[in-house]
Amino acid sequence: MAVLPICRFPDNPVLKQKAKRVPGIDGSIQKLIDDMIETMRQANGVGLAAPQVGVSLRVIVVQMPGEEPIAIINPEIVKRTGEQEVTEGCLSVPGHYGEIKRAAEVVVKGKDRRGKAIRIKATGLMAEALEHEIDHLNGTLYIDHVESPEKLHKVEHPMTETKDAMPRLET
Q1: For the chain, which end, N or C, has fewer CB atoms within 10 Å of the first or last residue's CB respectively?
Q2: Does 133 qualify as catalytic in the annotation?
Q3: What digits encode the pLDDT tens for the residues 91-149?
Q4: What is the 3-state secondary structure (H, E, C) of the chain?
């Protein structure tokens, strides 16, 4: 496994493009998933989308604290319920966080890394992370959801990119 460089907004245009569907799961997709998990862990994030590492494919990984990581290929949100106000950051938009609205519950379908169809019903942080990462696949960043400049904040003391320094809310 390898730690991949994380693309930064606005430096990399892939972050604002719609990612392509994965036509088939092969060794290159398995390696991408493994590398994305390693990269996400190294950055102390809870999620990562392939465009964040410069790959325009519909692949995400998510890992809740204390749980095993999951990979979803060609994920789609099939249902959103309720609303929650959350404070989000993003590994591709370092030094900032914003207050936005996300669904309180989502249902996501896609394929796992073995190609098996999966359906995930999630609430709380998991729902937020899934919605955030699927947004990345559609070329949308959390800052696109910030309603006003007062709801986007600069981190007072910019963090270094070490595992201990990155906040857990970044996906």
Answers
A1: N
A2: yes
A3: 999 999 999 999 999 999 999 999 999 999 999 999 999 999 999 999 999 999 998 88
A4: CCCCCCCCCCCCHHHHCCCECCCCCCHHHHHHHHHHHHHHHHCCCCEEEHHHHCCCECEEEECCCCCCCEEEEEEEEEEEECCEEEEEECCCCCCEEEEEEECCEEEEEEECCCCCEEEEEEEHHHHHHHHHHHHHHCCCCHHHHCCCHHHEEECCCCCCCCCCCCCCCEC
All residues at 6 or more sequence positions from 149 whose CB lies less than 8 Å from its CB, including other chains: none
Q: What residue type is assigned to position 151 of the chain?
A: K
pLDDT at position 22: 98
Whole-model pTM? Answer: 0.89
CB 127 within 8 A of CB 102: yes
End-to-end CA distance of the chain: 20
Q: Among the options 128, 131, 133, 170, which is catalytic?
A: 133
Q: For residue range 37-78, what is the model confidence (pLDDT) as tens digits? A: 999 999 999 999 999 999 999 999 999 999 999 999 999 999
The domain 13-85+104-141: what is its CATH number? 3.90.45.10
